[in-house]
Design a protein that fits this description.
Oligomer: single chain
Order of helices and strands: HHHHHHH
Largest sheet: none
Radius of gyration: 15 Å
Distance between the termini: 47 Å
Number of strands: 0
Length: about 140
């Protein structure tokens, strides 16, 4: 006997939509969802750790359930925010989504944040932009 929970089925489907869109926006070859997951995770974790915990929680509340789980995975709010320059942010993304150079890290970060913009809306993203250093604006 097979049982399904609609909320689980919907969040799995929505997560795959996000991954496919991240792959497309980041020009990941062959729409590789595994690679898109690595990229999404790396960017979300770097962003989460750069933000104040209350802003991270606000952003996370807007995310689909499984994407929210990715966002929170391994989070230590007592150790945030981590002050990262844009170059440090990109180096972290490049390291966590390896193998990747910082130029590619910038491209995939833009891809992830474009998906976030499309999905979370201007209000959430404007708030996010307002709390990040001005040099991060190149990612949005």
């Amino acid at each position: 006997m097979e049982h399904h929970l609609d909320v689980i089925d919907r969040t799995v489907a929505k997560t795959y939509e996000w991954l496919h869109e991240v792959a497309r926006r980041s020009t990941i070859e062959d729409a590789d969802v595994h690679r898109a997951y690595q990229v999404l995770r790396a960017v979300l974790h770097a962003l989460r750790d750069r933000l104040e915990p209350n802003v991270s929680a606000h952003v996370a509340a807007q995310l689909p359930l499984l994407v929210r789980g990715i966002f929170y995975e391994g989070w230590e709010p007592a150790h945030t925010p981590v002050r990262m320059s844009l170059s440090e942010f990109l180096a972290r993304v490049a390291h966590d989504a390896a193998p990747m150079d910082t130029g590619e890290a910038e491209k995939v970060s833009r891809g992830v944040l474009t998906v976030c913009w499309d999905e979370l809306g201007q209000g959430t993203m404007d708030h996010l932009i307002s709390v990040l250093p001005s040099d991060y604006a190149v990612l949005f």
